[in-house]
Design a protein that fits this description.
Keywords: Membrane, Signal, Transmembrane, Transmembrane helix
Strand content: under 5%
Number of domains: 1
Order of helices and strands: HHHH
Number of helices: 4
Protein name: DUF4134 domain-containing protein
Helix content: over 70%
Distance between the termini: 57 Å
Radius of gyration: 28 Å
Oligomer: single chain
InterPro entries: DUF4134 (IPR025408)
Amino acid sequence: MKKIILFYVMLFIVTGAFAQGNGMQGITDATSMVTSYFDPATKLIYAIGAVVGLIGGVKVYSKFSSGDPDTSKTAASWFGACIFLIVAATILRSFFL
């Protein structure tokens, strides 16, 4: 019985020795994969900001043409949304890259 236990202990130690590594290659691969997504994601956020800006411009023009009194509030909110998207994309890119 002691021989079997000793065999399994030795097998565990040898297997552990072969399975160990510092994992730097995996971390490096994961980092390069994640950072490769930031450029397309940033461009996508810029495109979404452009579409939001166009929609906002049409809505503000519509309100302005109809004589709605809260046109400036609507313009400020749409403009703020566009600025937020652009700033968020820039900050995320500079923070993670």
